[in-house]
UniProtKB/TrEMBL annotation:
Sequence intervals crossing the membrane: 26-46, 58-83, 95-112
Protein name from the UniProt record: Transmembrane protein 41A
Organism: Apteryx owenii (Little spotted kiwi)
The keyword Transmembrane belongs to this UniProt entry's keyword annotation: yes
Taxonomic placement: Eukaryota, Metazoa, Chordata, Craniata, Vertebrata
Domain of life: Eukaryota
């Protein structure tokens, strides 16, 4: 049982629902989670095999998604001798750039999801017309 005692869903359950909801665009969803500055990467790493996330999608989302974090680490190392406060590393400018990268990763997944819903609706409408046409004959 992964629920809380009071009936609330656990983080793993909520994440499982989100993964299933975004299965058609899973790579972009994972990429968004990796790029979003507040997502706990350790949780993504531990929950991926439990939620049956394909290894290739997991690998490439880690490879691409952790690039901003690695960039900050390298940037920090390069200017460490000149730094006087942490504000030089985690400025609003840097945070906004990271947020923009995370939101950019959402765009392809959102477009795929919208296209899938529209395509599915068109298929359902055609199917309904066929059924209605057969019933009237």
């Amino acid at each position: 049982e992964v629920s809380h005692r009071d009936g609330r869903p656990s983080n793993l359950e909520r994440f499982s629902w989100q993964v299933e909801e975004n299965r058609s665009c899973l790579f972009f969803f994972l990429l968004f989670l990796r790029l979003f500055p507040m997502t706990p990467n350790w949780f993504l790493n531990l929950s991926a095999p439990i939620l049956n996330i394909p290894v290739a999608q997991f690998f490439f989302s880690v490879l691409i998604g952790l690039a901003p974090y690695n960039f900050i680490c390298v940037q920090t190392g390069a200017i460490l001798s000149q730094i006087t406060s942490l504000d030089a590393i985690f400025s609003w400018d840097t945070l906004l750039k990271l947020l923009a990268m995370a939101l950019a990763a959402l765009i392809p997944g959102t477009l795929i999801k919208q296209y899938s819903k529209q395509h599915l609706k068109l298929e359902e409408d055609k199917h309904a017309q066929l059924l209605n046409g057969k019933k009237s004959m």
